From TrEMBL:
Region (Disordered): 489-540, 605-631
Polar residues bias spans: 605-623
Protein name: Uncharacterized protein LOC105365130
Family matches, as PANTHER family: METHYLTRANSFERASE NSUN7-RELATED
Gene3D superfamilies: Vaccinia Virus protein VP39 (3.40.50.150)
Composition bias type Basic and acidic residues, residue spans: 489-532
Database matches in InterPro entries: NSUN7, SAM-dependent_MTases_sf
Highest taxon in the source lineage: Eukaryota
Species of origin: Ceratosolen solmsi marchali
Amino acid sequence: MCRMNTKNQSLKTIDCRALEILKINKWDWEPDSRVSYPLMPRTSRRFGSIDSNPLLILKNSTETGWRLNDILLAAKVLMNSREEQHYTDEAEMRRVFGLVYDVLRFRKILDRALDNVGFWQRYGLLRKRERLVWLLLYDMHGRKFSRIHSNSAIAARNHSLKEADLLDVEEALLDMKTKVAAGVSRLRIGSSALSLDELLPAHLRIAEGVTWGEEGSIASGWVNSSKIGSRKKFIQEMQKLGFSLCLDCSPTSELEEHQYVFDPLCPKVVNIHERARERLAVSQLVRNHSFIFLERSLCLGAAALAQAFRVGRLSGPIILTHSLAPRHTGYLAELLADMENAGRLLAFSVGDNCANHQAYLKDIGISMQRCKLFSERYMSVPPLPEIDRATVVLATPPCSYTGVQDVVDLAIARGGDLQLLESLTSHQAESAEQSRNLLAEQMSTLKYALTRPNIQLVIYEVHTLLPCETTDMSRQVVQQVNRMAIDKFQRDHQKQGKSPAKDSSGKKLKSEDRRKSIESVIRLKDHSKSNTESEEISAAEVPIPESDLFEMANLNEVYERDCSKLLNQGSYIVVIKRKKIIQFNSQFMIKVAENKGIFGELSGQSEPQDNLMQSDQMEPSNINRKRRKSSKIQFDRITAPTHATTARALRDKHLCPRHQQHLVNEVSSLEKQVREARRRDAHRWWDEVAHAWRSNSNNADDYRFQALRTDPLTSKILSHVMHITYAELDRSSFAVP
């Protein structure tokens, strides 16, 4: 009791230190860069060794081995039963599919052992149910072909097998148990193999299943922030289950069974001891989808996309070309939820499981507003504005999956994908035809994503060890796309050079200027043939915009640190980005509008016609003759009138009679207003002059002026006597200077 209290106090002390460290982090779910990886490399131990396990049937075990009920459920899975399977928890589901995967891996060896001892000749009727025979034989080999000593356990086992229609298979194997055990041993000894897994092909030996032995490995999963809002709350929930956060994970230290660490590269990803998986799988954290198990290697691409999206300050929707699993889609959607400018996630190639996929996302708290699923392929979906606005793509095309470390975890993440296990355990997995099909799908997916106009960044992720699916293929596609962009730019530049440019000052030119422009067009047509060579040279000399070309980068540039030791072996992730990334923000849209003239003609771009004519007469520079020739041609193209300007200058104008009558009335009324204004101005002028003369004269009475005016109604001359009677003008004031 004292030891338990001491342990609990130490856990509380460690978790208090963890909560204090959280205050230093900028982002709540920021990866812990202090953690060294790998924690416990799988390559340091042998996995899948059947002979090294002393006893695999542990009736009351909660950590390792399979149980009788797991065998019954695995039999239904192997026979492709249409009944919907219900599992008590995820731990049971993992044991079932781990057993199925091992049976499919060793089926060739088990079948050859049965054939060598004449089992199929004696029990030929069981050939139709050969998968069930392999399952029970694998179970017997796991128990070292030993008997179950308890009579009650034998009775319970026989009763369960009888209800599942497996008792006859069990009795047939028991009848030839000695011969079958000897046949398996002869196969192993004949190949000098210490265990049966050494008899497997290379691709089946690398792709491991469930570790049934006492030795543990590393399990991983991600925290659903829709259910658990903060890291602090998750640490508290894990503390209730008896787990503590490891704060000192050096390369020499090992992760204990009761410890867990946050991943140093993937946000929200937690690594735990494999033997603690089942204890966590039966907890409420997993039942209510607060913690979701997922192989760490499947989270690397989504984490790299989130980091690149944040560093590049991008915006808009995000495209997922192929949905690896519903849990993988959910993890990416949760990462995008924490980014301010991220749009909706668009996941393609969901297939026939679109409804189940959507239901799972709804259960974990991801709605349609955050993630939209498409059953169609990314390359065949109808055009949508939201797809065209996407700027980032996570390309995860189908691959050989030879680099996946935990194949069972991937199958469970897909909801129990038996076809995946069958394809990976098939001896035709590396056939030439299948490799060509996978390579064609990968190349077409990557090429289509890179040729979209708004795509600025592509994260290419595959889990394979084959170079043809990784570096060679991606480099070839990038070179091909860049070559296409260069050719297209040169063609467009040549077309712009051959077509006459619009005259911005055409509306201001008079008829004489238009005739001169028309003559310049005729002169250009006469010299077009002689200038073809210089046009091609000028097109080749124009630099291609960096925003049209792509380049390949690694994760070190995205994270700004060395990430080579943080990646799983077999996971290939490359960042393909434009050399100059365009941010589609408000400033970019304003600049586009200015270039298109939506805000009117810019003052800096408009020049008077006189300046243009003067620049035409400037002396040529001393660069080279071809460049001077191309510059002169380029200037003539800019000053040349368009077809619309020429048509307006030559066509006759026909005025509307009704509009002309309105103009006549407006002219007559305007003339009346002008006459009346002039009359008022003259009257005021004479009043001012008379007042000036009268005020400056000493003898004002001597001036006898008489002003005459006309009656506006009768047009008669009226007399008007003024006080000013005399005025003398100084003629010198009217002299012309």
